[in-house]
Amino acid sequence: MTKFISATFLSLLLISCASKQSEWIDLFNGKDLTDWTVKIHHHEVGENFGNTFRVADNMIQVRYDQYGDFNDQFAHLYYNKPFSNYHLKLEYQFTGELQQGAPEYTILNSGVMFHSQDPRTMLKEQNWPISVEMQFLAGLDDGKPRPTGNMCSPGTDIVFEGKVYEGHCLNSTSKTYQKDEWIQAELIVWGDSLITQIINGDTVLQYSKPTMGGGVVNGFDSAIWKPGTALKSGYIALQSEGQPINFRNVKLRELK
Questions:
Q1: CATH code of the domain covering residue 182
Q2: Of 8, 32, 157, 233, which alpha carbon lies 20 to 30 A from 55's?
Q3: DSSP string of 159-178?
Q4: What is the pLDDT of residues 164-194, one digit of tens each?
């Protein structure tokens, strides 16, 4: 508990110092996908198959009405500039029903990837980007807790409570939120140092030292695979994995 409080204090102190030097910028302009690039499994970079990512009502919408079977077409929408030290915030809302053929674990499941590889380095048959994920989940109406703001690690490792975390996903301490609710998520990243995840104003998870490693990612270019490499910067991407979801108010402030 003491370590957690100390890390939280350090994060807040650093943000306080940086806030006088940088301003919030809108990554999403509310009108179109200018400055964003799509990469979908089974498709070349830049191909927005089925109009998966679209803009309406000042939201980025993820939809599958032109799909048929999902066919493992996991997709990500990347902002075109990499970042290292920053505070990201956005709002998300799960909606609709899981697409036919999508894996069961993807129901009411999405996220935002960060410290990701450049989408232009991804091969057509690469399923996930090498990245860290702030995972978003909603409750399944089964009475069981299902926290959001979790960590997942496709092709990466992180340090949690002083040691390398062995699992793929790490649950946060957040409450369970339901489908159709708008949730505010914040991500504070200090290069390859401290990472803080916040849901509706509450710090729900902290960890550190992201590096390339681990499993889950398949079909990548072996030339870029360098396990143990510290991830100090990378791209931010909104996720699509079979569940309709909306994103809005995607903003970022660089920390210096």
A1: 2.60.120.560
A2: 233
A3: EETTEE--SSEE--SPPP--
A4: 999 999 999 999 999 999 999 999 999 999 9
> How many independent structural domains does the chain possess?
1
Beta pairing partners, 54? 61
Distance of alpha carbon 7 from alpha carbon 253, whole angstroms: 20
- Helix (H) / strand (E) containing 109: strand 109-116
The helix/strand/coil state of 212 is strand
Structural domain boundaries, residue 94: 2-254
Angstrom distance (rounded) from CA 151 to CA 18? 25
The 10s digit of each residue's pLDDT in 32-57 is 999 999 999 999 999 999 999 999 99
Q: Which among 12, 249, 254, 15 is positioned nearest to 112, based on CA atoms?
A: 249
Question: In angstroms, rounded to a whole number, what is the distance separating the alpha carbons of residues 180 and 182?
Answer: 6
- Rounded CA-CA distance 131/236 in Å is 9
